[in-house]
Amino acid sequence: MKLKFLSMVGMAAIGLATPASAATLNVLWYGQSATYNTAMTGLAAGAASYDPSGDGSNDWNLTIWNPGDPTPTFGNYDVLVIGSSQIFGLGFDGTRLLAASDAIADARGSRTFISGQDADYHYMVSPGPVDNGPRGFLINAVNWAGSGTGLGIVSLPDGFSGSGSQWWCNAGSFFQSELCGSVSYYQEEGVVIPAATATFPINEGLTTAGLSNWGVSAHLALAKTIPGYLSINDSASNGLYSVTLVTEDEAGGCTDNCGGGNNVPEPATLVLLTVAAFVGVRRARIVR
User: Fold this and answer.
1) Tens digits of per-residue pLDDT, 182-226?
2) What is the DSSP string of 75-101?
3) 62 CB contacts (<8 Å, ≥6 apart)?
């Protein structure tokens, strides 16, 4: 009788199960101005609502890393996000990044996302928090980079021509050996999602039109020949250049509850696990 009851409960639990997934990503965001931090906090608060494919989404546990804060323990986070260095034309203080370069490199994991698009700035101004543009771009970038192993990296433009704020190629940068000599600083209005990468989860909900015509959509391009990287978004004016690169062997990986983050089972899953435990105990007693 008990086994019959447990079987009925198990079937009910299966009926309650849904394909949606739940995960919490621990996101460390390199802080800038108070206005900037407030905007990125708002982005994080709504991240779980972005799910254009209906295959699940992630909550973000956001920490802003501000000047004067202790150096973070990077291993406690799923992803480090380093925004654009030209927000409202202000100078970018990269000293915290450079001082912690070795610690970041030690914690760095399997997924790195590098882009010439300053989606954080355009999320705040024009075109604003558009799902197939700056908002979706930022959420996908963080979800993808944070769903690998170790500390994922999301880095938006390190500067623009003549700004003097570039930090990628600084001798103390963890990017120095990878990117120096492969970055071209110029303004690009057209960004193309190639057919080959359009179906990647990292481009979920995004369109070529939504990533273009931001009133300077990108401030730099990257060579497509950087070892270990794949272009997922190309420059429209020069097909030899990438606007966004990601680590190649992880490029097709998922962006929601796919091994990274602190995965939280759905309630129905918990019921199934409980049922399995009871059945296992009952069977053990019968065998005895």
Assistant:
1) 999 989 999 999 999 999 999 999 999 999 999 999 999 999 999
2) GG-SEEEE--S-GGG-----HHHHHTH
3) 27, 29, 40, 41, 44
Query: Could you give the CA distance from residue 153 to residue 74 in angstroms, rounded to a whole number?
Result: 11
The span from the CA of 263 to the CA of 260, in Å, is: 7
> What is the CB neighbour count within 10 angstroms for residue 166?
20
Report strand pairing: 79-82 vs 108-115.
Answer: unpaired
Instruction: Give how far the C-alpha of residue 258 lies from the chain's centroid of Cα atoms, to the nearest Å.
Output: 13
DSSP string, the chain: -HHHHHHHHHHHHHHH--S--EEEEEEEEE---HHHHHHHHHHHHTGGG--TTSS-EEEEEEEEE-TTSPPP-GGG-SEEEE--S-GGG-----HHHHHTHHHHHHHEEEEEEEES--HHHHHHSSS-S-TTTHHHHHHHHHHHHHTSSSEEEEE-----TT-----TTSTT-TTHHHHTTSEEEEEE--EE--TTTTTSGGGTT--TTTTS-SSS-EEEEEETT-TTEEEEEEESS-TTEEEEEEEGGGTT--SSSSSSSEE---HHHHHHHHHHHHHHHHHHHHH-
Q: How far apart are CA 113 and CA 153, in angstroms?
A: 6
Band of residue 257 on the pLDDT scale cut at 50, 70, 90: low
Q: What is the reported pTM?
A: 0.84
Amino acid identity for residue 146 in this structure: G
Rounded distance, CA 201 to CA 56, Å? 11
How far is Cα 73 from Cα 76, in angstroms, rounded to an integer? 6
Domain layout of the chain by residue ranges: 22-264
